[in-house]
Amino acid sequence: MNTPTLRKPRRRTAEKQTKAEISRERVLAAAARIFSDRGYAGTTMRAIADGANLQAGSLYYYYPSKELLIEAVLDMGIHGVSASVYSAIAGLPPSTTYADRIRAAISAHLKSILEFGDYALASRRVLGQVPVEVRRKHVVRRDAYGDFWVRLLESAHGAGELRSDVDLKLARTFILGALNSALEWYRPNGMPIDEVAAQFTALIADGIFRR
Amino acid sequence: MNTPTLRKPRRRTAEKQTKAEISRERVLAAAARIFSDRGYAGTTMRAIADGANLQAGSLYYYYPSKELLIEAVLDMGIHGVSASVYSAIAGLPPSTTYADRIRAAISAHLKSILEFGDYALASRRVLGQVPVEVRRKHVVRRDAYGDFWVRLLESAHGAGELRSDVDLKLARTFILGALNSALEWYRPNGMPIDEVAAQFTALIADGIFRR
DNA sequence: GTCTATATGGTGATAGAC
DNA sequence: GTCTATCACCATATAGAC
């Protein structure tokens, strides 16, 4: 508020964001939260504006339409999670077994979906309700991430580290389905994420039955 | 069509449904499909009417509001699935091990969510978008079904059939999360349900890694 | 950058004819 | 039972003041 009306465009730095960048992030965060809560059609631009402490008309300064706003939310979710997982795996020593790579991917995926919370939730819950063009583009990105998992499982299978009767594509949907369900029930003040990750990793690795 | 305008109310039989009952089911089925596709707010009464070959105004002869219509859809999903699973378990011989009861429950759950398709999908996708009162009631029912799973796992654990370090509540959400994800990708012309059930059962029981 | 005011169109629900 | 016509409301998006 009360910023001088005329000022030079600022150099972007890591620490100082312009007023516009701050507002833009507030808008995006509010959008992610409300979209994931009420669905695409159930979310009004007024509600998002309210969550970002703006009036409805002001949103259009940052995003020219509801469609481009949900697209930005979905992008953030998909890119955030996949980039986190890719970088976690890339950071492992070359000698890491595939079994350990899978364990690392499970943990990284779980942590990053919970970290990206509302953005990941929005991907999960509203992707099916979004205008077709937006959906088409994002399904491509989501599938690319799914392919990463299949390749990881294939490598492990080729190295003889998996049970030989496991269907790899089915295993991928099984694993991601189980992990992503944490978005629906995990609460930050509950069990620490690391413990959830350890339990889920054990379940995926060895199942529930005693041997 | 072309039914006489005056006729006595019919006795209900298993084979013959009245015209009203047939239309009512068509409306419910169309509602389940469209709600699960477009979300609660994204579904218009006009679209449902269209799917049921009616005009929008005619829906209100069967359901007095959109809210009561989604409630009927959610009821069908939750009751259908839980009743199927309960009866599958009740039909097992008393001597059945808990491990085998769990296997049977996995298979029954998977088969019935896919059988109830759109109704189960609607529960999964729109429960969070529905008016609070409707949601409140249905969360109670869903939780009751979740408790059944926890009790089943507790019994197995008490009998020493599970790995002792498994967190039972976490295992329940893990199992149901993985199974329910099948709703998002399973297609009737793909892998037979029995085979999916066998694979998922093996994954939940023993995990993916070779020992 | 953010506001207010408003245009244009779609939505749930009702009334009453047939 | 199903239709047509319609009401009252709320949505996205735009225009222009500040």
What does this structure look like?
The structure is a homodimer of 211-residue chains. Chain A has helices spanning 19-38, 45-51, 66-90, 98-115, 117-126, 132-158, 168-180, 182-185, 193-206. In chain A, helix 3 runs parallel beside helix 6 and helix 6 (132-158) packs across helix 7. The relative contact order of chain A is 0.10. The first copy, chain A, is an all-alpha fold and 211 residues long. The longest helix of chain A is centred in the C-terminal third of the chain and has 27 residues, at 132-158. The first copy, chain A, has 9 helices and no strands. Chain A has a domain at 72-206: Tetracycline Repressor, domain 2 (Orthogonal Bundle), CATH 1.10.357.10. Chain A is 65% helix and 0% strand. Chain A binds a DNA duplex (18 and 18 nucleotides) through residues 3, 5, 19-20, 23, 41, 44-46, 54-58, 60-62, 64-66.
Give the SSE map.
2 copies of one chain form a homodimer.
Chain A: H1 19-38, H2 45-51, H3 66-90, H4 98-115, H5 117-126, H6 132-158, H7 168-180, H8 182-185, H9 193-206
Helix pairs in contact in A: 1-2, 1-3, 1-5, 3-4, 3-5, 3-6, 4-5, 4-6, 4-9, 6-7
Chain A binds a DNA duplex (18 and 18 nucleotides) through helix 1.
